[in-house]
Amino acid sequence: xxxxxxxxxxxxxxxxxxxxxxxxxxxxxxxxxxxxxxxxxxxxxxxxxxxxxxxxxxxxxxxxxxxxxxxxxxxxxxxxxxxxxxxxxxxxxxxxxxxxxxxxxxxxxxxxxxxxxxxxxxxxxxxxxxxxxxxxxxxxxxxxxxxxxxxxxxxxxxxxxxxxxxxxxxxxxxxxxxxxxxxxxxxxxxxxxxxx
Amino acid sequence: xxxxxxxxxxxxxxxxxxxxxxxxxxxxxxxxxxxxxxxxxxxxxxxxxxxxxxxxxxxxxxxxxxxxxxxxxxxxxxxxxxxxxxxxxxxxxxxxxxxxxxxxxxxxxxxxxxxxxxxxxxxxxxxxxxxxxxxxxxxxxxxxxxxxxxxxxxxxxxxxxxxxxxxxxxxxxxxxxxxxxxxxxxxxxxxxxxxx
DNA sequence: ATATAGGGTGAATTTTAGGTCACTTTGCTG
DNA sequence: CAGCAAAGTGACCTAAAATTCACCCTATAT
Lengths: 196, 196
Known about the structure:
2 copies of one chain form a homodimer.
Chain A: H1 5-20, H2 27-34, H3 48-68, H4 80-96, H5 98-109, H6 115-142, H7 151-171, H8 176-194
Helix pairs in contact in A: 1-2, 1-3, 1-5, 3-6, 4-8, 6-7, 7-8
The structure holds a DNA duplex.
C-alpha cells in the first residue's frame, strides 16, 4: 500500500522500544501497530536488529541536523530574564514533544545496547547541552550580563540539574508540573548567583 | 549443595540484568553463572519475574538500610576543602564499587519495568542525594562556611552535575578518570562560588 | 543408621518470537 | 492495458527460552 510504511515502522518501533525496550518488544507488536501483517516487515527490514540500526541512524541524523553544527546554536539572550525565558521554552518543548521524549527514553534504557547508542546518549544527556549553553553563557559574559567565569563550567553547572529534572519527567510524568516549576526556580537561582 | 545459592542467584542476576537487561538475560545464563543446571533455579524462585522482584526488594532494603534514615547522614565537613574531600571520597566509592555500580545501571535501564523501580530510581538519582546534601550544606551554612541560601536548592545544584558525571562513568567507563577530575573541578568551583 | 527434606539433575513440554517462502495484490510505467 | 516490481499475506519452520516433572543425591536430625 503506502510508501511511508518504512517510516511508520520506525515510528512504531520508537514508541514501543522506548516503552518496553528492544528485547521487550516483538515484531508482531510493531507490525500490528503499523497495520500490516508480521511477515510484511521483512519487505522493509532484513531483521529486527536492522530496525534498531535504522532507528539509531535516524536519531543520530536528527540530532546532527538539529543540534549538530554552530548554525543551530540558539541566540544569546540579551538579559538574565531572557535566559530564564529561553530555558523554559526549551524545557517545555523537550519535555512535551512526544518524539523527543521517546528518543530520550529509548537512549536511557538502551544506552548499553551498542557503542553508537552510548555516544549518542552522552551527547543528548551531557555534552550536547553543555556545549550549547557554553556558547550562550559565554555570549552573555561578553555582554556583561553574567560574571566572568569559566563558561564551560557554568554551562555544565546550569544544564546538568535541568537535565536531571527532565529525566524525572520521563520517568514519572505525573511530576511534570512540579519539575517544570523546579527548573524555573533553579534557572532563577542561577541568574541570581551568576548574574551581574 | 550450598545454602547460599539463593543469594548467588540474585548476585548473578544483578550482574547480568545490569549488563543485558531483564528481557535480554535468560535463566540459562543465570544458572550457568551460579554453577547449577537451568531447572535448579526453580527450587529457589518460582519464576523469572520473581527473581526480579526479589532483586528489587533487596535493592530497596539496601538503600533504606544505608541511606534511609537520618542516622546515616554523613558528618558535616568543617571546611570547604572538607566538603570537596568528602565529595571525592563518596564519588570514588560509588563509581568503583561493583555492586553499587550494577545497581545503578540496572535501575537506569529497568526504571520503566515497574512502579517500584521508578521510585527507587528517583531516590537514587535525584532525591536521595539532594536530601543528603541538603543536610550537609545546611550544616555548613550554620557554621558560616557557606553563604546563606536555600540549602535544598544548593544541594540540588551541587549533586545533579555530579550525578550526571557518575552516569557518564557507568556508560563509558573509559572516561572515568576524566569524569572524576571533572567532579573535583566542579566541587571546587562550587565552594569558590558559595564558600565564605 | 536411616528417613526426610532441601538442593540439584536432565529430559520433556509449551509457548513465543524471529524469520522464510510461495503466493496475491496493487500501483506504476512503457 | 500489459507487465513488472514493490508491498502485503498467511502458512510454516525453527530455535530459544520459560517452566514442569520425575528422579537422584547428600546432609542432618532423630
